[in-house]
Structures are given as C-alpha cells and as structure tokens.
Design goal:
- By secondary structure, this protein is an alpha/beta fold.
- It has two domains: 148 residues, Aspartate Aminotransferase, domain 1 (Alpha-Beta Complex), CATH 3.90.1150.10; 238 residues, Aspartate Aminotransferase, domain 2 (3-Layer(aba) Sandwich).
- Helix content is 37%, strand content 15%.
- It contains 13 helices and twelve strands.
- The protein has a seven-stranded mixed beta sheet, with helices on both faces. The chain has a three-stranded antiparallel beta sheet with strand order 9-12-11. It has a two-stranded parallel ribbon with strand order 1-10.
- Strand 3, helix 6 and strand 4 form a beta-alpha-beta unit.
- Helix 3 packs across helix 10, helix 5 crosses helix 9 and helix 11 runs parallel beside helix 13.
- The longest helix has 24 residues.
- The structure holds pyridoxal-5'-phosphate.
- The site of pyridoxal-5'-phosphate has 13 residues, from helix 5.
C-alpha cells in the first residue's frame, strides 16, 4: 500500500522534531528551559472557565457550523473597538487559527496554485498549504533589515498566473516584526493590481511593544473584499488548548463558501466557544498587562543577545519570538549540543533551529528562533545558560 505523495512530501514540524531529544535528557535528570515553542505560561483569564462552569445544559449539543452566535458577536465587538465592522455573516468560528488557515487555503486555491509568503514564516503554513497541493512562494526577508519586506518590484517579480494570495503573520512568527503602515499599503496595492487575496494572520495582534500599535489589515481601505483576517484565542488569551480561532472577511461569497467546509466538519467544540466568548470581552487593561509582561521578557532576551559577539539580531517589536543569527555554522547541531552535551548546574535551554522557517533552501542554517514565553526570572536564567553555552561551543 502506498501513501499519498502529498503527505509523504510534507516536512516534519521543525519545532517539534527535536522534542524526543529533550524528553530523553529530561528523563536523565536535566532541566530544560523550553524557548522552542510558542506555549505561553501566562494564566488563562478566569472568565474562560467560569463561563464553562456556569454552562447550564444537560446535553452538550453540536454547536452551529458557523459558530456560537455569542462568540461571533464578541469577536465582532472586539474588532469594532478598532473601527472594523464585520456583519454576523462575515465571521466563521474554526478549530484554532490552524483550521482557519487550512479552510481559507482550500477555498481560494486549486492544486498547483501559489501563495506568496514572506520568509522566515510560521512553519505550519507548509502543512496548511502542502496538505492541499498548494505551493508557497517565499518573499525573502533578512535579519539585518529587521525582517521587513523588500521593495514592491522585488515582490512583483514572484507573481505568476498561479498566484492567488499573499499570506503573512503580523506581528510575525518567527521574527517578531510588525509591518509598518506603508508595508501594509504596499501589500494592498499589489493585491489590487494583481487581483490577489490578502490573508492577514493576526493571532499575535496586541503583542506590540515600544508604544507601537499592531494595525489590523481590516483597517486598510480599498481591499475589504479581498482581505481575510485569521484570529485565535491561543496566544492573546493564553488559551492554546481551547482550539478556538476564526475567519473574518467582508467578502460574503468567500465566507459562504468556506461555510461548506465548516458544515462538513459539523462544528467547533461547544463549551470552548462559550468560554472564548468571554475572553473577547476582556478590556484594554488585560491587553496592556500582557504586552508589558512580554516586553520585559523581550528586553531580557535582546539585551543578552546584544552582549554576545557575532550575533545578528534586530530588536523585534511584537509577538513573543525573535530570530537571531548565531556565531555557529549549523544552528541545529548547536541546539542538539545544548541539549545533549551542555548544562549549567544541571540546566540547559532548548531553541528552535530556524532553517525550517524558510522555504528557500540553505537559508536560516545559522539562525534560531527564541520564544520568550517564560517568566522573567526563568528568561534571565535561560539567557545566561545560552550565553555560557555559546561561549563553550565556540571555544
Ligand atoms: C502565526 C501563527 N498563526 C497561526 C497559529 C495557529 O494557532 P492556533 O491554531 O493555536 O490558533 C500559530 C500558532 O503558533 C501561529 O504562530
């Protein structure tokens, strides 16, 4: 029996691939600081569980395929705070941002079509697209430019008759880069000129530091019918396991057609939707608290990296990741060495080799992604261990 080429050609998640090594060394008694995965340690707001505990029904029924009206209205109110208006039939609830991205890809692309994505990018974009035979065409961005976009003419060169959309995460995973308004307007111009969809993955919106405000693509005028916003409670509300995401678009025809995919999978978990409806009601005070905490962590990581000779890294402005070029030839080898061969008093650090975040072969070989998802004391300790590890590795 043969498996499909489609699944055989999919890459293993580079974020999870080294986990068995970490599990083994932990069993041997080593403590590992996990800076390799975007699992925040912040407590999920209590309103989530309270709403679920108060759910009064003897049967957990299927929810609507489109999603629970309460949650849809909560999300609409959340966008309205920024002046972005979505009608009830312009929002679909999904199993995380992941399903939102998969359904969007299926709805706008046929097999063989292409989606432009600035690289390095969230590696699971490969899974959402490759799984349905859609190809990612990378727009290369560089560490020394703070991973901002190249010029319009560079991007246009990559467009072919098969190009259907531009997809990006803003704030960016893995780079932490926040797109400037002029970059967003350039994307809008390109999309209009070449009749493309814009898939704006905003699961990190709100994580914007140094006084910056992460702007939603939903506020860019003139592209409302081609803009698709991907949302999730995973990161902003520290509720990764709730698996609640959503798709927002003013393009009613698109939403109506994605609804067919929602109907085929019946619905999203009812209780988690009930909890998530309360999360979207949390006010700006909550967002400010989260942002301050992550900014402190970002500062610890960035100031340590600045002290280490040979590291190239621009200060990231958002999300909770950064990509740094290390003074090593092969970052994956270094990450494995840190796990297997190195410790400070029985403790070590796990990072993600960044190569898997690139589609262009050979790029990112000497880079790592650092997720600053641990509390400030743990981050200080983890960065000390990384500094000592690099010193020893290169000695
Ligand atoms: C940029 C980006 N988009 C989407 C997702 C998917 O999130 P979820 O499916 O947990 O909502 C993630 C998760 O790490 C992410 O980093």
């Amino acid at each position: 029996m043969e498996l499909s080429k489609r699944v055989l050609e999919m890459q293993e998640s580079p974020v999870r691939k080294l986990v068995p090594i970490a599990t083994r060394v932990k069993k041997q008694g080593k403590k590992v600081f996990h800076l390799n995965i975007g699992q925040p340690d912040i407590e999920t707001p209590k309103v989530f569980m309270e709403a679920i505990n108060n759910y009064d029904s003897k049967v957990i029924n299927y929810s609507f395929s489109q999603g629970e009206p309460k949650l849809i209205n909560s999300i609409r109110a959340y966008f309205k705070r920024d002046g972005i208006i979505f009608d009830e039939d312009e929002v679909l609830i999904t199993n995380g941002g992941s399903e939102a991205l998969t359904f969007t890809t299926i709805a706008i692309c046929d097999p063989g079509d292409e989606i432009l994505v600035p690289e390095p990018f969230y590696t699971n974009y490969n899974g959402f697209t490759g799984g349905v035979n859609v190809n990612i065409k990378p727009i290369t961005t560089l560490a020394q430019d703070g991973f901002h976009l190249p010029s319009k003419s560079e991007i246009i060169k990559l467009i072919t008759p098969k190009t259907k959309a531009i997809l990006f995460s803003n704030p960016g995973n893995p780079t932490g880069t926040i797109l400037r308004l002029d970059e967003m307007e350039m994307i809008a111009e390109i999309a209009k000129e070449f009749d493309l969809f814009i898939i704006s993955d905003e699961v990190y919106r709100g994580f914007a530091f140094d006084g910056l405000k992460g702007i939603s693509m939903g506020s860019i005028k003139g592209v409302e019918d081609r803009t698709i916003i991907i949302e999730s409670v995973s990161k902003r509300y520290s509720a990764c396991g709730a698996r609640i995401g959503s798709i927002q678009s003013k393009n009613k025809k698109l939403i109506k057609n994605i609804l067919k995919l929602c109907q085929a999978r019946l619905c999203v978990a009812t209780l988690e939707q009930v909890g998530a409806a309360e999360l979207y009601k949390l006010d700006d005070e909550y967002t400010a608290m989260i942002k301050d905490e992550y900014q402190k962590r970002r500062d610890i990581v960035y100031s340590t990296l600045q002290k280490i000779p040979g590291i190239v890294c621009e200060k990231p402005s958002g999300a909770f990741y950064l990509v740094a070029k290390l003074p090593v030839e092969d970052a994956e080898e270094f990450v494995i060495w840190m796990l297997e061969e190195f410790d400070v008093d029985g403790e070590t650090v796990m990072l993600s080799p960044a190569e898997g975040f690139y589609a262009t072969e050979g790029l990112g070989k000497d880079e790592v992604r650092i997720a600053y998802v641990l509390n400030t004391d743990a981050m200080i300790r983890a960065m000390y261990i990384l500094e000592k590890g690099l010193e020893k590795y290169n000695s």
